[in-house]
Amino acid sequence: MTDLRSLSSADFTPHLNSVFTLVSEEGLEIAATLVVSTEYPRNTMRGAARTAFDLILECPADGVPHFNGASFTITHPVMGSVGPLYVERVVSAASGPDVARFQIIFN
């Protein structure tokens, strides 16, 4: 499994528009597409080893239960497994009600 401290936005950017599998500690499995990887230089602590960034993943909302944040391991065929990570289901007016949207923040 990948060391979380070594990850950066650049690790994920080549995999935009590809599917990651999110697996919760309770066994919930969600296949979601990585749609955004954004860096936040102004939110990065001085001297930090990496620039703060977040990931946004999306999938059809049908069949995806609502949850208020949970611990998931994410897996990608090229990157392997990363986690556990705190994943929050977020609302986006742009995505609409038929899309489940998830955010992962790396500070």
From TrEMBL:
Residues 7-106 form the DUF6916 domain. It comes from Azospirillum doebereinerae. InterPro entries: DUF6916. This is DUF6916 domain-containing protein.
